[in-house]
Amino acid sequence: MRKWNSAFAVLTASYISVVLVIVLLLCSAFYLYFSNHYKEELQSRNRLILENTASTIETSILERVQQIYLEVSLNQQAALGLLPDASLPSNLSKVSSLQDMLRAQVASNSDLIQAVHLYAPRRHILLSSLYGLKFNADQGAGSAYWSDWVNGMKRNSGNRLWTEARFVPEDIVSSIPGGSGSSLITYAHSYPFRSSGADSELLIAIDLKERALRDILLNMMPARDQSSFIATPSGQILAGSHPDAVAQEGTYAASIADALASSETSGSLSQEIGGSAYVISYQDLPSTGWKIFNASPADLFYEKWGVVQRLILSLCLFALLVGIGLSGILATLNYSPVKRLLRRIKDLSGSAPDPAANEFSLIDSAFVRLNDKVSSLEDTLLASSPHIRQNIIMNLLQGSPAQGKVTGDPEFLGLSPEYTRYCCLLLNTRGAYTHMSLSGMQTAMTGIIEGLEEIRLPGSRIIAEELPDKQLIVILGTREASGILLEQLSEHIVTETRKQFQTGIQLSRGCWVDDIRRLHHSYTEAQTFMKYAYFLPEVTVLKDRDLLEKEQSLEEIPQPVLTRLKDKLQTRQLEESLAALEQLVTAMREGSYPADYCHFILANTVFMYSDVLKSVRYTPALHGHLDLYNEYIALADIRHFQEWFAASISTFIADTEKRNSDRALSAIETAKEYIGKHLPEDLSLDAVASKVFISPKYLSKLFKEELGINYTDYITGRRMEQARLLIENNKMSVEQVAASVGYGTTAYFIKRFKEVYGCTPGNYLRTVNTLQPPQAEIRLS
C-alpha cells in the first residue's frame, strides 16, 4: 500500500482538487451568467436584429428611393424645366418622352415603388407615370391622393419630405367603396436640389409600396410570438410584420411615445401590455426619422431557464464524475514515468534509495548530481559546435545579441584582449551562385575561409565566416591599425576569390574600431559601401568615404530627368529614349544620391516601362509574355541594366512602328468602305471609329495624314458626289436625294450642295444636259 506522502497520492489529490475547483467555478459562472444577464442578453439580441433590419431598410429601400430621385433629377435627356415653364402648352409633344422616362424608372423598380410624379406648384400641373398629365391638379378627381405631400412640401422649409402611409385605390376617379389598391408612402423632394419645399420650382414625388417595408420586416425579424412595425415621429404605424399592424397602434401607443421621447437612437424598455410583460426594442432610421419597433413576450426565453438549470446541474455532476475518473487515470499515467525514472536512477547509482524519502526528493538529488556533470562538459560542447561560432560572430556584427541566443566569448574566436583595432571586410559572393552548383559553392567557400584563417600576420588575427545573405565577412583584429596591411589583405582576398569562383568579385571595407563591442559599426559601414557595388561595377574595393556622404544625402534626381524617359517612350522616339536612359544612369552613377533611392527609381522606371507596354497591348514576338521585374532583379549591375533596357526599348519601338503602320492602312480602307455603304446613316466620327475599332481622335488623324483631307470634308464630298449622281438620273425629288445621302433637312442639303458645286440642285438639274458637271472642290481619294 502506497504511503500518503507518495508521488501517486499527491498527484491523485491534486487532480481531484483541480476538478472540484473547476466544476464549482463552472457551476457558479453558468448560474450567475444565465440568472443575472438573461434579460440583457434578450435586449442585446433584439437590438442587434433591429440594427441589421434598419441597415437593410436603409440600403435596400430608402437609399434606392433617393437614388431614383437623383436619376430622375439628373437625367440629361429629361426636360424637367418644361412643367413650370409657361411654354408647356406649345410643347406637349415633349411631355410623352418625359412620362416614358418616369415609367421606365417605375418599371425598373417595380418591386419597390408604385409611381413617380412631377408637380409644378406655381402652375398646379402634375405629370405622373401612372396618371399622365393633369392641369389644375390641386382640384378635381384624385387630388386628395397627392395633396398630403404637395401641401406638406409647401409648408416645408427643408428640401424633402416623407409622408404617412395612406391607402390609394387603383382607380382614383371612382368613388365606389371596397375597390382594390395599395398602401403607399410618398417621398417628395424639391427641384432644384438645394431649394426648399416652399420655394422649389418643381416637386419630384416617389410612391413607395408599404408592402416593401413589410417584406423586409417579415424576412429579418423573428416571427414567433412577436410583433414588428415602423412608426413615424408622430406615432403613426407605417408598416408592420403583420397586415393588421396599423390596427395595433393603440396597443403599443404608450411604448411608442416613450421611445420617441428618448434621445437615444436605439434601446429597449420593459412594459406590461394586456397584462403580460413585454420587452420593447427600438432603432432609429436616421434618414427619415422613423423608428423600428419589436415587441417580444418577456417569458419567451425565461421558460427555458428551468431546463437550463437542470442541464447545468447535470453537466456539472457528469463533469465531476468524469473528472474524478480522469484524475485516477492521469495520476496512474503520470506516475509510470516517475517509477521508470526511479528505477533508472537506482540502476545508475548502484545504491538502494532511502525508504523514508519520497520519489520527489530522490529525483531532486539525482538532478543535482547530473547538473554537476553537465557543468564540467559545457566548455567542451561549446568548442565543438560550429553553430555557436556563427552565433558569436553574428552577435558581434549586430552589436547586441538576439534574445534567446548565446552571446559567447570573443576570445573563443581567437580575438584576445591584446587586439585593440578591428575592421570588417565584406565580400559579395551572390554572383558566384548563378554559375556554380550548391556543392561546388560550399566547397569553394570552405576553402576560402580556411585559407584566410591560416594566414599568419604579425600581431593580427583573421576570422572569416559565411553570412546567411550569401556574403562573406572577414574580421581583422590587430594591435595597431595599418592601412598597408588592410590593402594587402584586400588584394589577397580579391585574388583568391576570383580563382575559386571564376568571376569578378567586389569587396567593401568598414572603418577601424577600437573595441570588439563596436565591431558592428565597421560592419554597418562595409554594408553601406556594398550598396554601391551595383552602381560602380568597375570598382573592385569599395572604400571611398564620399559614398557615405551619398548615403546621408537628401537630394533627388531632377524631375525632368525622370519624366523625359517616360515621355520619349510614350512618343516612341528611339534615339531620344536611349539618350534619356543614358542620362538617368549617368545621374545615378555620378550624382550624390543614396543607393536605396536609386534602386527605388530603377524599379519605378521598370514599372513605368511595363505600364507603357501594357497601354499599347504590346506582346514580344519571341517570349509571348512580359516579366520585366524578374528580369530586372536578375541583373548583376547597372551596366547590365542599361544594356538590357536599351535592347528592350529598341525591340519594342521597332515592333510597334511596324504594327501601327499596318493597322493605319487597314483602318483607313475599312472606314472608307463603311462610309460608302452607309451614306444615309449616322457617319459621325465617333460612330465610324467604333465600327473600325479605333479611337475617334486617331481616325481623324489618319484621314489627315493618309488622305490629306479632314474627316468632315471627306464625308461631305462623298455625299455630294452621290447626290450629284442621283440628280443626274432625274428620278428623285430634292427631298428624296437629301434623305438618300444622310441629310435630314432639305435646306441644309441645298446649302451644302451650293457650297460644293456653286449652284442649287434645281439649277444643276436644268443644266445637266447642256453643261459638264462642275467638279467638286473636295478630293475623294
From TrEMBL:
Signal peptide: none annotated. Residues 669-767 form the HTH araC/xylS-type domain. It comes from the Bacteria. SMART domains: HTH_ARAC. It holds the Pfam family HTH_18. Keywords: DNA-binding, Membrane, Transcription, Transcription regulation, Transmembrane, Transmembrane helix. The chain crosses the membrane at residues 7-34, 311-335. PANTHER family: ARAC-FAMILY TRANSCRIPTIONAL REGULATOR, REGULATORY PROTEIN POCR. This is AraC family transcriptional regulator. It comes from Paenibacillus tritici.
